[in-house]
Amino acid sequence: MALSRLSSSSRRLDLLTSPLAAALARRPISTDTTPITVETSVPFSAHKCEGPSRSVETTPQELISFFRDMALMRRMEIAADSLYKAKLIRGFCHLYDGQEAVAVGMEAAITKKDCIITAYRDHCIFLERGGTLLEVFAELMGRRAGCSKGKGGSMHFYKKDSGFYGGHGIVGAQVPLGCGLAFAQKYSKDENVTFTLYGDGAANQGQLFEALNISCLLELPAILVCENNHYGMGTAEWRAAKSPAYYKRGDYAPGLKVDGMDAFAVKQACKFAKEHALKNGPIILEMDTYRYHGHSMSDPGSTYRTRDEISGVRQERDPIERIRKLILGLDLATEKELKDMEKEVRKEVDEAIAQAKESPNPDPSELFTNVYAKGYGVEAFGADRKEVRAALP
Ligand SMILES: Cc1ncc(C[n+]2csc(CCOP(=O)(O)OP(=O)(O)O)c2C)c(N)n1
Ligand SMILES: [Mg+2]
């Protein structure tokens, strides 16, 4: 998605700083599709399948787009944190910084005809599916220009025209829905798949196993993606799961454990999973990832884990820093060029926030629209259920 957003200045990165870069200079990096192979950080662990190769094909164009997309996501989430603290965002708000590689790697392996459905940590998935920063910030601030017209807020982002089905606040509830989307894909023989994202906390719910069972029986193109950030609110995975090896928890369903901080490992795993699911049915991908923020804005995130743990992950496994090192190692851009790109991203975010603030609140007449099925009427009662407060047609 980011390439389409690159401004003309960043499209023409100055590449005349190294021999390889000089050779590449005739082609701007953002359109350079020279094949490059990179290795995943660690091998995949596979359950009931042969995992994919660690060698991943990429291009300078993709490397730069991964860097830029993740930098944009990181900045967007940090800006959301500030807006929340300034009380411009209200209600629930769950941030995704740290987990960005899952969003960009997955998108790089699939098309917009493939579906994605997730829980409440949904801002970055929406962006990667082609949503705009304005739609994000306006929705977060409850403004009309938001992707759900300012009526959904942080947990209810959707983009049906590019296969993004939300944005769900009830833990685990999106899993049977995702399997239903895969059922529709198989029924209409359209050769696409559905990626259903859920957390390590959700991974222990009964509905997941029920949905997986029927999906396996029907050989649906359902890919279950457990984003294992190692905590469900303040509960560490080992306190909630007898076996935290989530990629094996499908028992009869194959699974892969993936370094979810490595966008290329994610891309390789998602490509593999798509091919597998179209031929054989469900597969589980466990993405080993980490959230830097607390669970939600009401959680400082430091009472159930140490500051050393958080800073250790930042230093050793950060998904953006990994890509930065690859770009610098391959001499595709200079440190300054990457810093400039980050500055540009920051400006883009600030501009979107300013625009979102200009957008009005939803009209009061919208209070009951998109809530109840049209034409059935609705009555709303007071808390004591005696006094009828509103009766709509
Ligand atoms: C059915 C249900 N139970 C409890 C909650 C409260 N709740 C919200 S998020 C959450 C933890 C989920 O953790 P995990 O699945 O690991 O996802 P993460 O937040 O780490 O992305 C809980 C218990 C809820 N929203 N829905
Ligand atoms: Mg979790």
Short description:
The chain is α/β, with parallel strands linked by helices. Helix content is 40%, strand content 13%. Thiamine diphosphate binds at residues 121, 169-171, 199-202, 229, 231-233, 295.
SSE arrangement:
Layout: H1 2-5, H2 8-11, H3 19-24, E1 36-39, E2 45-47, E3 55-58, H4 60-85, H5 100-109, E4 115-117, H6 123-128, H7 133-140, H8 174-187, E5 194-199, H9 206-217, E6 222-228, E7 231-232, E8 235-236, H10 237-240, E9 255-259, H11 263-280, E10 283-288, H12 307-317, H13 319-329, H14 335-358, E11 378-381, E12 388-392
Parallel strand pairs: 4-5, 5-6, 6-10, 9-10
Antiparallel strand pairs: 1-3, 2-9, 7-8, 11-12
Helix pairs in contact: 4-5, 4-13, 4-14, 5-11, 7-14, 8-9
This protein binds thiamine diphosphate and magnesium ion (MG).
The site of magnesium ion (MG) has 6 residues, from strand 7.
Describe this structure in words.
The chain is α/β, with parallel strands linked by helices. The chain has a single domain, classed as Thiamin diphosphate (ThDP)-binding fold, Pyr/PP domains (Rossmann fold). Helices cover 40% and strands 13% of the residues. It has 14 helices and 12 strands. It has helices at residues 2-5, 8-11, 19-24, 60-85, 100-109, 123-128, 133-140, 174-187, 206-217, 237-240, 263-280, 307-317, 319-329, 335-358, and strands at 36-39, 45-47, 55-58, 115-117, 194-199, 222-228, 231-232, 235-236, 255-259, 283-288, 378-381, 388-392. The strands form 4 sheets. A 6-stranded mixed sheet has the order 2-9-10-6-5-4, sandwiched between helices. The radius of gyration is 22 Å and the shape is globular. Mean pLDDT is 91; it is low at 1-26. The protein binds thiamine diphosphate and magnesium ion. Magnesium ion (MG) is lined by residues 199-201, 229, 231-232.
